[in-house]
Amino acid sequence: MSIAFSRRALLATPAALLARKAFSAPAAPKSPVALVSGDNRRKMITEALAALDKELLPKLRQRKTVVIKPNFVSVTRQLAASHADSMRGILDWLEPRFKGTVTIAESSAGETNVGYETFKFTDLPKEYKRNQVKLVCLNEEGLYETIHLLNGDLHIQPARLAARLLDPDAFVISAGPMKTHNVVIATLSIKNMTLGAPLKSKRGETPRWNDKRIYHGGVRQTHYDMMLTAQRMKANWGVAVIDGYEGMEGNGPSSGTPVESRLAIASPDFVAADRIGVECMGVNPDWMGYIQYCGKVGVGNFDRDKIELRGVAVEKVMKKYQLHRDLDRELQWMGPLEELPPKLG
After folding, report:
1. How far apart are CA 170 and CA 238, in angstroms?
2. DSSP symbols for 9-46
3. Are strands 307-311 and 257-259 parallel, antiparallel or unpaired?
4. Cα–Cα distance between 166 and 171 in angstroms, integer?
5. Cα(200)–Cα(106) distance, rounded to whole angstroms?
6. Is 325 within 8 Å of 251 (Cβ atoms)?
7. What's the average model confidence in pLDDT over 151-158?
8. What's the mean per-residue pLDDT of the chain?
9. Distance between CA atoms of 273 and 33, rounded to whole angstroms?
């Protein structure tokens, strides 16, 4: 005996009725961002990280080593560089939570080791013996992996990125200060990582070269290449730490003036951390091309509605930073190209 099902009868079955209901995917978890204010740089950073223990510790326990990436855009001016007390705040958080080695590693456009001496980073290995803290100049180490970027002529060009920052066994921490910038408006965690990773020649090496310069071919190309680099580096990014104890406004990232913001930001999502950071600086987030690009390609959450803020409200700590004198030129990444290449075919 054959049984024929009508279309109406088939659609009336429970499974079919369920299939007809609108499918709603579970909401993705929001990106947590800890925002702490106070009068002690070291303590604020430790508190911001501790507020994220639930999210950070599972990943930290899977890694064999920690790499802290400071920012030494200058190796002589403290306001332009990461502070040793910022490192202490991170190491205070790490020491009871991580048993492996910790490396502080930078690829300065200047001489990294001079920065370690100038800013008293050389005291840190003696203070934190449990984690066998060591200081590394990534340029002198000279180990790299290659990425292909767009240069100023929009041609493909390889760049050398520090291999230590791409180590799959590493939990990488970005630890930079909050500053204005002369190309991309503001520099926070993503900028610290993506422009700190490209290497330059060692001392005495000839011919001399500097792959950081590849990123400076034009304001559009800079934002795009930073996004490409962030995509490549994201896999082992552990946590972004933004030191806003004393920020820099005006002609950053090296020649600006201090702002007493007295805050610290931390997040496992570098995009979300930077989004909150620029809000604390009173900067329009829509101006931040590279952060938006990173959000669009899945590096992190740029959408404010997808960020869970822990700690103080942005409005309580926000200070309107004076931006770089070249701001109008920096914002040209947003407008139409004035000279278009020929369209063929």
Report:
1. 8
2. HHHTSHHHHHHHSPP-PPPPPPEEEEEEE-S-HHHHHH
3. unpaired
4. 10
5. 11
6. yes
7. 94
8. 92
9. 6
CB atoms within 10 A of CB 30: 15
> Alpha-carbon torsion 181, 184, 190, 191, what sign?
negative
d(CA 119, CA 82): 8
Q: What's the confidence (pLDDT) of residue 298? A: 97
Q: Which residue has the higher pLDDT, 218 or 20?
A: 218
Distance, in Å, from the CA atom of 203 to the CA atom of 119, rounded to the nearest integer, reads 21
Pairing type for strands 31-37 and 307-311 reads: parallel
Q: Burial letters for 97-108: b for 16+ Cβ neighbours within 10 Å, e otherwise?
A: ebebebbbbbbb
Tokens in use for 144? 């790299």
Provide the pLDDT confidence category of residue 215 given band limits of 50, 70 and 90.
Answer: very high
* Phi–psi pair at 128, nearest 5 degrees: -125, 70
- Reported as half-sphere exposure (CB side, CA atoms, 13 A), residue 228 has a value of 20
Is the pTM above the cut of 0.85?
yes
In sequence order, the 6+-apart residues with CB closer than 8 A to the CB of 118 are 75, 76, 78
Answer for the pair 240, 267: CB distance below 8 angstroms, yes or no: yes
pLDDT band at 344 (very low <50, low <70, confident <90, very high): low
Give the contacts of 266 (CB within 8 A, at least 6 positions apart). 33, 34, 45, 48, 49, 51, 52, 239, 240, 241, 242, 273
Q: What is the pLDDT of residues 80-128, one digit of tens each?
A: 999 999 999 999 999 999 999 999 999 999 999 999 999 999 999 999 9
pLDDT band at 337 (very low <50, low <70, confident <90, very high): confident
Phi, psi of 52 (to 5 degrees): -115, 15
Distance CA(110)–CA(122), nearest Å, equals 17
Cα–Cα distances in angstroms (integers) from residue 23 to residues 15, 18, 20, 29, 194, in the given order: 13, 9, 9, 18, 38
Sorted by where each begins, the domain ranges of the chain are 29-332
What 3-state class would DSSP assign to 54? helix
Domain 29-332 adopts which CATH fold? Answer: Rossmann fold (3.40.50)
